[in-house]
Amino acid sequence: MTLWLFKSEPDEYSLQDLAAEASGFGRWDGIRNYQARNFLRDRVAVGDGVLFYHSACKIPAVVGTAEVVRAAYADPAQFDPESKYFDPKASADKPRWYCVDLAWRSEFAHPVPLADIKKNPQLTEMVLVKQGRLSIQPVRQEEWDSIVKLGGK
DNA sequence: GCCAACGTTGGC
DNA sequence: GCCAACGTTGGC
Q1: Which residues of A43-78 are buried (b: 16+ CB within 10 A; e: fewer)?
Q2: CA of A88 vs C1' of C8, distance in Å?
């Protein structure tokens, strides 16, 4: 099992949106960055744990956890001309973009802000700190444990 | 809204 | 097969 950190803009899709899914899971789609796609397509597996991170908002922070419940499949939005994620260069037998399904697991009592993570000597090696712009990234077990502890859940 | 880091693309 | 240009991302 691998542990991950997934970023989402809360205006687009928040942890609360995932928690409110009637089906019990949500589709993590719209990934259009190659580095993130490669992780999604090649490494993310059912049962993997996910730190849910809110980005591009007032206080960027890890806000809770989720779990992967379906591994990579072709993101349907790339085939839909009406979608903003439409990609004319993608085809059904040669999809370019992938998505997974996630289930909500927990919401932190105390969100863990990026600013605090940067100040924490135990967490300075996180990809989140070392490489800013990556929306899907692996997390070490120790990092997961520290953040969940800080989150209070 | 700027701009830096990244993987991919495509012209040569 | 090199490498400059491109699109995406996201903190500031």
Answers
A1: ebeeebbbbbbbbeeeebbbbbbbbbeebbebbebb
A2: 17
Strand C proximity: list residues 17-36 of A with CB under 7 Å: 30-34, 36
* A40 contact partners, CB below 8 Å, separation of at least 6: A28, A31, A72, A98, A99, A100, A136
> Nearest CA to the C1' of C9 belongs to which residue?
A133
A35 in contact with nucleic chain B (CB within 7 A): yes
User: Is the pLDDT confidence value at A153 over 70?
Assistant: no
Tens of pLDDT, residue by residue over A91-113, are: 888 899 999 999 999 999 999 99
Q: In angstroms, rounded to a whole number, what is the distance separating the alpha carbons of residues A28 and A82?
A: 19
pLDDT, tens digit, 9 for 90 and up, residues A37-85: 999 999 999 999 999 999 999 999 999 999 999 999 999 999 988 888 8
What is this structure's pTM? Answer: 0.93
Residue A37: phi, psi to the nearest 5? -60, -40
